[in-house]
Design goal:
The chain has 14 helices and four strands. The longest helix has 29 residues. It starts with a helix and ends in a 5-residue tail after the last helix. The model has no long low-confidence stretch (mean pLDDT 89).
Length: 420
């Protein structure tokens, strides 16, 4: 909203009003404002949750210090959502299709997560929302995102069609198509020009391959939104773990949005240019401010938990952000923590069922899943294929090491764009 106000005032040569034309300036304001909301108003929300006795119900897994968390205020994801929405509404171009998508994603998943937490806390149903209902909500969002990117005339790209090397200076120059097009292309490392077109998988369909490519894109969007959202939800099991990893991933996506929306930087990395994508930097800045501000209260020992209100929303935001930038195939690298947490649960359950059927007794791969709990169990307490580490690690050390791994994965995500 303020962007339009100051853009109008700039037409009257008001000193300083032109600063709002710069994405970097508005992103800085969004970060500061979201950080302020998350820290200043966050404490007031935490006190409100304490007064209303909106506390976490803890399932006893026998982990050290676990039961001390019982009664800690939950549903703190409301703090994150407010700290994202308010600065974005103030400082972003609200007519931008990508900003609209991110706002819809935040509210949509926020409502699903809040409903799930409400059922757990106020109706004393530890299972919360029915899993099928939750999946339907996530699939619905994926469908909205995929179809919007397909149908919106504003969601276009300019393809990096060729590379020119000056024979004298040996400098590389990337040339782009002169017109913006609708495309099913996505960025992937290690390929020439970094582009992979989903439509090429349906080359045998001739003139109908593009429509088939869009159908595949929508299905992939649905899968990614559901998988990453649930991955973030599983990761939210230790103080500050999901919050810190999400902040790192959000910062990385902000960098990718900035370079994708700037034709000069996109040319340097030899990736497709996405007009209007630079505006997503404002949202990414608000996302970073919100998660870092929430981390002030969520680090060990946590004063508040985000609940499904926060974890489902954070995962969905990261997924949709990457999809809007045509960088969804980089998610397995960037969101490697979420991927491993998901896989650990799938492998554990599958192996347990297989061995119970074959041997009459279920066996485990890890001492406990999701994976972060595996490191909280000392060796020998549970029969499992993997017993290391022998000694249980402190919760704060596990979280810090996961953050470090996430930082490495974030750096790799950006570096791979120069490997071809």
């Amino acid at each position: 909203m303020l962007y339009y106000l100051f853009h109008y005032l700039d037409s009257y040569d008001l000193p300083g009003a032109g600063m709002f034309n710069y994405i970097s300036f508005r992103a800085g304001l969004a970060f500061i404002f979201s950080l302020f909301i998350a820290t200043w108003f966050g404490m007031r929300i935490i006190h409100y949750l304490q007064r209303k006795q909106i506390g976490e119900t803890i399932r006893d897994l026998g982990l050290e210090g676990q039961m001390k968390k019982k009664g800690t205020p939950t549903m703190g994801g409301v703090i994150i959502i407010l700290a994202i929405l308010v600065p974005t509404l103030f400082f972003a171009k609200l007519g931008n299709i990508y900003i609209i998508l991110m706002l819809v994603t935040t509210v949509w998943l926020g409502v699903i997560g809040f409903t799930d937490d409400y059922i757990k806390v106020f109706r004393h149903n530890k299972d919360g929302m029915h899993g099928r209902t939750k999946i339907i909500g996530q699939v619905g969002l994926g469908l909205i995102v995929g179809l919007t990117l397909y149908l919106s005339p504003s969601a276009v790209i300019q393809e990096n069609v060729s590379t020119y090397v000056d024979p004298v200076t040996h400098q590389t120059e990337v040339k782009y198509s002169t017109e913006s097009i609708k495309s099913t292309q996505t960025t992937i490392p290690f390929l020439k020009n970094h582009n992979l077109d989903y439509a090429e998988a349906f080359h045998f369909l001739g003139k109908h391959k593009q429509e088939a490519g869009w159908i595949l894109f929508v299905l992939i969007t649905i899968f990614i939104v559901t998988a990453v959202s649930n991955g973030a939800n599983l990761t939210d099991g230790l103080d500050g773990l999901a919050t810190g990893t999400s902040a790192i991933q959000g910062a990385t996506l902000g960098i990718l949005a900035y370079v994708s929306g700037n034709i000069n930087y996109a040319g340097y990395l030899n990736i497709m240019y996405i007009p209007g994508a630079g505006e997503m930097v404002i949202y990414a800045a608000a996302f970073m401010g919100a998660t870092i501000g929430f981390l002030w209260y969520n680090t060990y020992p946590a004063q508040v938990f985000m609940g499904d209100t926060g974890s489902l929303t954070l995962g969905g935001i990261i997924a949709v952000f990457a999809i809007a930038l045509h960088k969804e195939l980089l998610i397995p690298i960037l969101c490697g923590i979420f991927l491993v947490e998901n896989l650990s649960v799938i492998l554990q359950v599958s192996y347990f069922k297989f061995t119970r059927k074959k041997y009459g007794e279920g066996r485990r791969i890890f001492k406990m899943t999701p994976l972060h709990h595996h490191f909280q169990e000392p060796a020998g307490t549970v029969k499992a294929l993997f017993q290391k580490p022998k000694q249980a690690l402190p919760e704060s050390k596990i979280v810090a090491r996961f953050w470090i791994i996430c930082l490495i994965l974030a750096a790799l995500t950006i570096i791979t764009l120069k490997i071809r």
